[in-house]
Every structure is written in C-alpha cells, then in structure tokens.
Amino acid sequence: MSAISIGQAVVLGAVEGVTEFLPVSSTGHLKIVEGLMGIPVDDDAVIGFSAVIQVGAIAAVLVYFSKDIARILSAWGRGLRDREERYHHDYKFAWWVIFATIPIVLVGLAAKPLIKGPLASLWVVAGSLIVGSGVMWWADRTGRHKRGEDDTSFKDAMLVGGSQILALLFPGFSRSGATMSTALMLDLDRVAATRLSFFLGIPALTGAGLYELKDALGTGAGAAPLAVGTLVSFVVAYASIAWLLKFVAKHSFNAFVIYRIAVGVLLFGLLGTGVLHS
Known about the structure:
UppP, transmembrane helix, antibiotic resistance, mainly alpha, peptidoglycan synthesis
C-alpha cells in the first residue's frame, strides 16, 4: 500500500507548486502539511515523494522561461563558435549562470552529512524562516531598486548564485528568499531580482531534482500518487511563477516577510507542543 493517498498527493503537489518559487520555504510548508495530515515526515517514501514532485515545479520554470532559456543558450552556442558574439549580454550571462552554480554544488557535496543530518531539523527550518524574514525586510527597505535585468554583471550573478548556499545549509531560509534578498541588496529592482533568482536557480534545482529522483522512485510512495503530485506541482508552480512576477512589479516583499514570520512561529508552536517532531 502506498504511503501517500491520491488526495494527499494533490494537496502536497499544490503546496510544493505554490511555495517552491515564492520566498517562503517549500521545505517548511511541506513538513507542516505532512504533519497535520498525519503523514510520517521522516518516512523514506514520504521524503522520496517530496523529491519527485519537486521535479514538476522545476519543469514549470523551464516551460515558463523556455523562450528566454532558448535565447540564452542560442547566444551561448553562437559565442562558442564566433568571437564577435561573445560581447552579447546573453552569451556572458550563460557563463555567469554556470560559474554561479559551482559554489552551491561544491558546498552541497562537501556538507551533505550536515545537510541530511542536524541541519535538516525542523527547529532549524523555523528559525531560518524568521531570520530570513528580517534579511528580506532589510534588503527590500534599503535596496534602491534602480537596476534592471540588462544591468546585471558577473559580480551580481556570483553573489546572488552563491547566496543559494544559505538555503542549502539552513532549510527554511528559502532559496528564492536568499537570492531575491541578495539581488535587492545589489540595488536590482524587484522584477529583475525575481527573474535573476529564477534563472540562477534553474541549474541547481534541476541538478538536485534529478539527483534525488534516482533514489526516490523506489521508496514505495506509489506510482499513481507520484504522477498526480508531480502534475499538480507543475500546474500550480506555473501559475505561481506568473503571479509572482506580476505581484513584485507593483508591491514590496512585506507580505512575504509577515507571512514567513507567522509560519515560523506556527512551526515553533507545532514542534513545542509535539504535533510535529523535528
């Protein structure tokens, strides 16, 4: 019998799709919802299920930005063949994404025992949600929001890409939250910060998803729940990406800051009362 029902798969797929790219921590939300539904969060099948449905969210960002990705890859390919094309921003940006991904890969491999061990605690997730909220509030408040996407540089890409390490080491900090906050500190406007977060996250998320996928498929989560959860994750994530880009064009990140604090406090409460176990 599958560890997760079809109904639970729909709910968890929706939670993954909504939270994967919003700066609110998908890890924290999945664990909270799993606990409230009585699903054993430390079960191998449940952990594997969460890893598989993440692939649906990753597919959503690849589809949503497919034209941009194709343009950047095309410029990169032309630049490899033609020296004159190497002055094109898209060619340089492709290399920046590659270089900016290296730090998180190296740290991920070196710190895997910590990431899978003590740093995976839900106490860490709760604390990181709240601390990350303060960082995001400060970044949005002090950033001058004067630079657009075309104004990004190699330094921007490396700093924003490197900030993904915070979310890797401290789940709950949120990869999107860390990258968007860093971009805001570099004076990028909110839309540019959000799009840069997406582009720099594509290699890391795709690599991590495929890496986890090979171990997750045989954990007993059940083929039907896996398929349903992944499909729901894809659809909801696609809609979430579209909504987020429209939202940040007209609003600050204050709503996310308040929400993150509330979720962090809730998680501390659930852990403290024994409803969830770290």
